[in-house]
Amino acid sequence: MDEIAIHAGVSKPVLYQHFPSKLDLYIAVVDSHAEKLVADVNRALLTTADNRQRVQAAVEAFFDFIDDDNSGYRLIFASDAMDPAVIRRVEGATEACVDAVYGLVMQDSGMDPYRSRMLAAGLVGASVVNARYWVDASRPIDKASAVDTTAALLWGGLAGVPKQPADD
């Protein structure tokens, strides 16, 4: 907490006025990064009504977050924190991204809620896994190529999913 206070430019007592413990501070930092990721993904999804471009924009949002906010990425997707409160926050960030995609899948596809949710979870999961691989492998290809490759994978998968009637 001493080091954090120094970096924040405040005294340790001031830090403890806002965060009673290291865990509370850690959760606040995780929440801040998670909110940014979710906002970025939501913003990307709303940039166009063209679904192929939405996929591209959402994948790019994941890669940008991991590339631009590496400490946030590590806190959310590579954390070894075992505290249940932290785990809930991390899971909540992923679920919020799935929720954003799920709403669009439901709206645009006519699929039932379960298929829509499964599809949304798969899209988000593949984006996260590919972006993590790209960073953990020390960015073996440029980001634009990594985004394009991931978006092509997702779009290819989506193209094979027939539109389902809502009452299936």
Automatic annotation (TrEMBL):
InterPro entries: Homeodomain-like_sf, HTH-type_TetR-like_transc_reg, HTH_TetR, Tet_transcr_reg_TetR-rel_C_sf. SUPFAM superfamilies: Homeodomain-like (SSF46689), Tetracyclin repressor-like, C-terminal domain (SSF48498). Keywords: DNA-binding. Signal peptide: none annotated. Residues 1-37 form the HTH tetR-type domain. It holds the Pfam family TetR_N. GO terms for molecular function: DNA-binding transcription factor activity; transcription cis-regulatory region binding. PANTHER family: HTH-TYPE TRANSCRIPTIONAL REGULATOR RUTR, TRANSCRIPTIONAL REGULATORY PROTEIN (PROBABLY ASNC-FAMILY)-RELATED. This is Regulatory protein TetR. It comes from Gordonia neofelifaecis NRRL B-59395.
